[in-house]
Amino acid sequence: MNVKEMEVKEQVGDAAGEVWRLLNQGGPQTLVQLKKKLNGSGDLLGFAVGWLAREDKVEIVKEKRSILLRLK
Questions:
Q1: What is the DSSP code string of 30-60?
Q2: Is 43 left (phi over 0), alpha (psi -120 to 50) or beta?
Q3: 18, 38 in Cβ contact below 8 A?
Q4: Phi and psi of 70, rounded to 5°?
Q5: Which run of H or E residues covers position 67?
Q6: How far apart are the C-alpha atoms of 66 and 71, rounded to whole Å?
Q7: What are the boundaries of each domain within the chain?
Q8: In this predicted structure, what is the pLDDT of residue 5?
Q9: CATH 1.10.10.10 for domain 3-71
Q10: What's the pLDDT tens digit per position in 31-65?
């Protein structure tokens, strides 16, 4: 793994930690809410949510026209 790949992986891990913290403190939130709070790219948020889902840390629920995330 080169330096650039390691930096991206670290950014995704940091974003996953921030998403977890936001859900832990604020309860369930939509992807739109999380994106606003993170002031980051949608791609990075998607990677972070994928990381948390793979680790079985979050539940992803489709609600009407939005996606809701909550901690397990």
A1: EHHHHHHHHTS-HHHHHHHHHHHHHTT-EEE
A2: alpha
A3: yes
A4: -145, 155
A5: strand 66-71
A6: 17
A7: 3-71
A8: 80
A9: yes
A10: 999 999 988 778 999 999 999 999 999 999 998 89
